Amino acid sequence: MPKAKITDAEALAFHIDPTPGKFEITPSVPMTTQRDLSLAYSPGVAVPCEAIAENPQTAYDYTNKGNLVAVISNGTAVLGLGNLGALASKPVMEGKAVLFKRFADVNSIDIELDTEDPEAFISAVKLMGPTFGGINLEDIKAPECFIIEQRLKEEMDIPVFHDDQHGTAVICAAGLLNALHLSGKKIEDCRIVLNGAGAAGIACIELIKSMGAQHDNCIVCDTKGVIYQGRTEGMNQWKSAHAANTELRTLEEAMDGADVFLGVSVKGAVTQDMVASMADNPVIFAMANPDPEITPEEAHEVRNDAIVATGRSDYPNQVNNVLGFPYLFRGALDINARAINDEMKIACAQALAELAREDVPDEVAMAYGKKLTFGRDYIIPTPFDPRLIHVIPPAVARAGMDTGVARRPIIDMDGYEQSLKARMDPTASILRGITARARKNQATMIFAEGDNSQVLRAAVQYQRNGYGQALVVGREEDVKAKLTADGLGDAVRELRIVNAANTEHLETYKDFLYERLQRQGFDHHDIHRLAARDRHVFASLMLAHGHGDGLITGATRKSAYVLDRINHVFDARASDGAVGVTAILHKGRIVLMADTLVHEWPETEDLANIAERAAAVARGLGLEPRVAFVSFSTFGYPVSERASKLHEAPAILEARGVDFEFEGEMTADVALNADVMAQYPFCRLSGPANILVVPARHSASISVKMMQELAGATVIGPILSGIDQPIQICSTNSTSNDILNMAMLAATRLGKR
Ligand SMILES: NC(=O)C1=CN([C@@H]2O[C@H](COP(=O)(O)OP(=O)(O)OC[C@H]3O[C@@H](n4cnc5c(N)ncnc54)[C@H](OP(=O)(O)O)[C@@H]3O)[C@@H](O)[C@H]2O)C=CC1
Ligand SMILES: CC(=O)C(=O)O
Ligand SMILES: [Mg+2]
């Protein structure tokens, strides 16, 4: 079964929110003052213009050309959906542009050209040459794609690469090398059937033949069946080159006894009977998107000895060009390459194949919920493998340098690999780690506010994304009505709705609550009202009795109120050691701030406790803690009563002999900026702080909200830490996505004492 089912409504919502489409463009230079304007625009901009006119190579220094790739299509072969036209191909092209950025930090923009005339296409792209460091052609149907790519390669001096041809061929080759290794077959001896003789098909068969597959052992099919010598219908010169001397006429006949099936055609082109007729240990790459030629379930049902791959993310063995194009271009751009040649493609295929045979990092294993080891269900690295960025581009760059296409060869390869590691946003791996741990823990999550639409949507997502069971506290009719209004009517049957009327535990909950509150002025009547009617209390009681593994609340009421209700059931006060830790993610940095929830105005001892709790959360996130106690003074100046607690707190940690770095007091710029910190050579932090312990809750709230509103930072938390149970308190402004993130945090049990 595919791991995570997505609905059409979810796919559309993903493309609408938060703004239509999938990316935007942001400046990389300041653009606020008169001086900025003078430098960026007139008159300053004239200087680089003249420099480039004199020496065109300097365009790589003074413009974004060297890290900018165009993803260009005319929409004539959009995935396996056919000729949808230029406009309808835009979501795919935007998607490829985002993948370039996400996986290899290549800036990319989509361009959809409204023409099916190869000449018009060629001249449009050629005219754009000065803008880009490379051209990625996408989803252009065969045979026009061959003509277009060939001409552009000849006429342009930057890499032109048709991803559906060569990207697909490279990944297919890498996967096939490993699949044949596992099935103990040699490529020279294999009978190979290729279905689909278009852009992807022709390139795949050419590369595979160059790796040793024998022409006489390869049968290529298209909509008319087998491409045999002498066939005239539906032919072109690219197909003719692969016509077989054979009596076979149909795909069905060709599949009988075949060792390998490569599908780059359309959904459902292969039947179970065909698979059943293949040789022992057959290799089946059903690569059509979005739906494969045959699903892995169908193939395995008739052949449990098959090694099956698809182009999709939701099955094992994703043979998809996403593993290639970002890294091929990264390597090519970094040597200012004139082209991406065959040697660079083969280097990429080999590096990918070798990487899959190496031990897989835990991070990847966690994302997939199991330890991946080289084998039938893991023949090719997964797209989220963090090693791809620093392993594949160097292999590509080296091959480019060895074959003379590099305008700027890389001299220090080790330094290059380090710089590749630094390109990737560390926050992405932290978020992925949270997701992975949540999925692994399969926690039953209690969503206290079942009368809120955002909460319900988050609960549905929690369950549908495979994190575990979602329990929603609320009235059944209410939940049903809200879900239906949000187009999620079918989720009613999936969620478990719990309330005082349908639980068998109400009396137990009430006894428990009475025991805790009887000496605080609560009588039986009060207890019944709290347990049966207050959903924050009811949900907390469920958690306290093990009727759920974590609790999400706070989306409908202010956090102070919610915390007060939770305290009826749990000991989550400042005096109990509870601390709120908020993670701020911005521009590739992650900084934790504490206490953002519980301590209103902490004493010196409290500040030291807060630092310890925040350090534990940081470690849980995979960060090595560096704590700064922040204020408006630095190391005692200006002297102030307000800063004195922050000044004294480090001495307490020192006396406790904690095993993490700390320092204070200091201003936030000293804490976060290495150059400013360097003005205090005695400072004991080995680098910028990643935990800021703030003087009080108001300063925490102001800082977090300013980062969110002014800088657009991603804020996760507050993570309620230091209590026995995972409870997360959202804010009343939380989106369903924020609430889902909170649920995942609760599922990781990061804050737990
Ligand atoms: N996993 C991956 O990374 C990638 C997968 N693909 C997938 O490969 C497929 C083809 O893409 P692309 O090469 O760009 O498209 P093209 O339009 O260039 O080629 C399509 C080819 O498939 C053939 N075909 C269509 N339907 C059938 C059928 N029922 N039986 C046999 N052959 C058929 C066509 O035959 P004819 O020539 O007779 O018209 C044509 O040769 C798509 O599904 C695409 O999603 C593509 C790139 C990457
Ligand atoms: C993956 C891809 O490029 C395609 O299916 O067209
Ligand atoms: Mg494509």
Automatic annotation (TrEMBL):
This is NADP-dependent malic enzyme. One of its GO terms (biological process) is malate metabolic process. It comes from the Bacteria. Keywords: Metal-binding, Multifunctional enzyme, NADP, Oxidoreductase. SUPFAM superfamilies: Aminoacid dehydrogenase-like, N-terminal domain, Isocitrate/Isopropylmalate dehydrogenase-like, NAD(P)-binding Rossmann-fold domains. It comes from Aliiroseovarius pelagivivens. In the N-terminal section; belongs to the malic enzymes family. Coiled coil: none annotated. Its cofactor is Mn(2+); Mg(2+). Residues 20-153 form the Malic enzyme N-terminal domain. The active site is at K96. NADP(+) binds at V78, L79, G80, L81, G82, N83, L84, G85. A divalent metal cation binds at E138, D139, D164, N289. Its EC number is 1.1.1.40. It holds the Pfam family malic. The gene is tme. Residues 165-401 form the Malic enzyme NAD-binding domain. The keyword Thylakoid does not apply. The keyword Hydrolase does not apply. InterPro entries: Aminoacid_DH-like_N_sf, Malate_Decarboxylase, Malic_enzyme_CS, Malic_N_dom, Malic_N_dom_sf, Malic_NAD-bd, Malic_NAD-bd_bact_type, ME_PTA.
